[in-house]
Write a structure and sequence with these properties.
alpha/beta, 9-stranded mixed sheet, 10 helices
Length: 303
């Protein structure tokens, strides 16, 4: 039996509603139903009596609510007391993230982290965002996508919004002055990279608050945006990548934004974890650190 399941059960009982619990926890109703069903199956008994208009606890549910509240209260107090003991946060936190996210954040940011939390060890697992987060075993998952993360039992928190733009080398742009709109991209060599759950060959653009797409092709397909950026610098084609990943190359003149930087598409960076209320202290410390530092990083990108 998982602590997260007990916490969710308590929320459903307090709200007397699956929909109300979903609203409080900010997760789909389908997730709430699935967790309740799994808990009932694990215990071998029904915890709620359901009708079309009401939801009430069974005798087993009443027994569980009394005992689980004590258990959850003890766990929370224990984690707080240990985590805050002399400010000494320790242990290992496993983070699953796309390789590009790791490359973007894990330089000066990590040096600062280890200065603040010398007792914590970060273990990074590289994965591609198009995978379902439920398939990744980690304390904390960073997910980058044009849309919401795939439906899962994990809690999602939007960390930031970035802009994906079209760019190429000055030499490439000079050779193709007729390229003036994204709808022409299918006629030019494009450098394909991972786009979260979006297929790599389908490129998007936004115009007048409407989203459009086009199928593209080219000499390179890679799981790394950085490789596509390097290929674009060498003049092999057009890259469609987050602006934040190549500010230095743009400022140095190695890359130029196509279409005067218009037609950008928002992409979202999410943090995913198993429970909102009973997140282990060491994981909360890591999550809060990345929230703050990613915000600073993105702000500096445009100064």
């Amino acid at each position: 039996m998982k602590t997260e399941d007990l916490a969710l059960f308590n929320t459903v009982a307090e709200c007397s509603s699956l929909t109300g619990a979903a609203r409080v926890l900010n997760i789909p109703v389908s997730k709430v139903c699935r967790h309740v069903a799994q808990l009932e199956q694990h215990l071998g008994t029904r915890l709620f009596e359901r009708t079309t208009r009401s939801l009430s606890l069974t005798d087993a549910g009443i027994e569980l609510i009394h005992r689980s509240k004590k258990i959850l209260s003890e766990i929370e107090a224990l984690e707080l007391s240990i985590g805050q003991l002399q400010g000494n946060t320790s242990g290992t936190v496993t983070i699953a993230a796309p390789l590009d996210f790791i490359n973007l954040t894990c330089n000066d940011m990590l040096n600062k982290f280890y200065q603040e939390y010398p007792g914590l060890q970060l273990k990074f697992i590289s994965y591609q965002s198009r995978l379902n987060p439920m398939e990744v075993q980690a304390d904390l998952v960073f997910f980058v996508s044009h849309n919401n993360p795939p439906d899962s039992t994990m809690v999602g928190h939007k960390l930031s919004t970035m802009k994906r733009l079209f760019m190429a080398s000055p030499e490439f742009i000079d050779k193709h002055p007729e390229l003036i709109h994204p709808k022409q991209l299918g006629q030019y060599p494009c450098l394909l990279s991972s786009k979260g759950v979006q297929p790599g060959h389908v490129w998007l653009w936004t115009e007048d608050n409407h989203s459009s797409c086009i199928n593209v092709n080219g000499p390179l397909e890679s799981e790394s945006n950085e490789l596509c950026i390097s290929a674009a610098i060498s003049g092999q084609g057009i890259a469609w990548v987050p602006r934040e990943m190549c500010n230095d190359q743009i400022q140095s003149g190695k890359l130029k934004l196509l279409f005067d930087g218009n037609y950008g598409t928002d992409i979202y960076m999410w943090s995913l974890f198993s429970s909102r209320e009973y997140l282990p202290h060491r994981v909360k410390v890591v999550l809060d650190f990345f929230k703050k530092e990613i915000s600073i990083l993105l702000k500096q990108s445009f100064e």
